Structures are given as C-alpha cells and as structure tokens.
Amino acid sequence: MRVALPDSPPPSAARRSLRASLNARRRQVAKQQRQQVARLVARHADRALQLQSHWRIAVYAALPWELDSAPLIALAESRGCRVFLPCIDRRRTSRAMRFVSMQGPLQNNRLGIAEPQGTEVLGARWLDVVFLPLVGFDRSGVRLGAGGGFYDRAFAFRQLRSVWHAPRLIGLAYAFQEVASIGAAAHDVLMDGVVTEEGFVRCTIG
Question: Domains in the chain, start-ordered, CATH in brackets?
Fold first, then answer.
C-alpha cells in the first residue's frame, strides 16, 4: 500500500515524518522475510538489467534494518561484474563519497557501515550501475534517503545532463516503501528504477 504525504506540513517536516514511519516499518521486518525478499530482489535485478561481466557496479553494504544487498552482490560477482562499495570521507564535516573495489576485509566507518579497505578507487562517473539504499521512493524517481545527502552529492553531475543519464541509478526496496508522491527537492538526483520483491519499477524521470 502506498503512503501519501500530508498536504499541510512543509516538505522538510513531511519528509522527516515519512522517513520515521518507513524506518519503523523496515525495522519490523522479520529476519526470515528479509532474507527471502533479498533473494527475490537479486533475481529481479538480474532479470531486468541482465548483469554483464564487464560492468562496474556499486552496491551498498546493508545495515541490519535495510534490505539485504548480500544476495545481489554474490550474484553480480558470479556474473563477473566488478563490484564497488561506497566509502564516505572520514572527516565528520564532509559529505563526500567515493567508490572502492570490494576486495579484502571490510571495516565499519563512523556511521557503522561496512567499507572495503582496498586502494582501487573508481569515480562515480565511470560506474555502469549503482544500486542505492533508500527509505522511500515514488515512481517519478524521487528517492527518500537517510538524510545525509551522500548519494545526491556524488551523482549531482547527472542533473547537468538532459539525455544521457549514466550511470543508471537503481534503488533496492521493499514494496511497502513505495510512496504515492514525495515531491523532488532541488538537490534530489532522480533514480532510473527501483527493484522490489514484486519486480522492477521503471521510473519516469523528468
């Protein structure tokens, strides 16, 4: 069931309220259901995008309450994709993010998110597909994130393009995270699609 934003509060207040509501619902997902959905999402992503061996893809390392990305990472690696994970700048005042090859052990950053410790870094412009975590989404491609703005900053260059939207930005979500309408803020970088346990949702960007 889609959730409609209330008309009265300003967008920032509405987003905070929606974010809190959807986060609470995500935390209620049972472990077994989370694992089952993650496997379905991986299969739907592969079927919709047809992962290719030469692709450079970025996937997030999931926090316990997020949709688990591990099955998709394993599937991408089995297809021969080069997998990168996002790493945030260690400075607390920075919102910069880079993408590092998923090699060797992972170590939690200051936000508790696992990051690779390798030295192979790829610029955001050179990725083929990026699988994004999200709190909520609508079919116009608006992504409600955790509020840090890391992804919007990393892919802000896409807003300067009128035709060529690359890399492809694909959200991973439970179906209940779909919202009737969020309303894009000036800084929002729109997604090309979202994969849920129900299948692939193609977003109508622009």
Answer: 30-202 (3.40.50.10420)
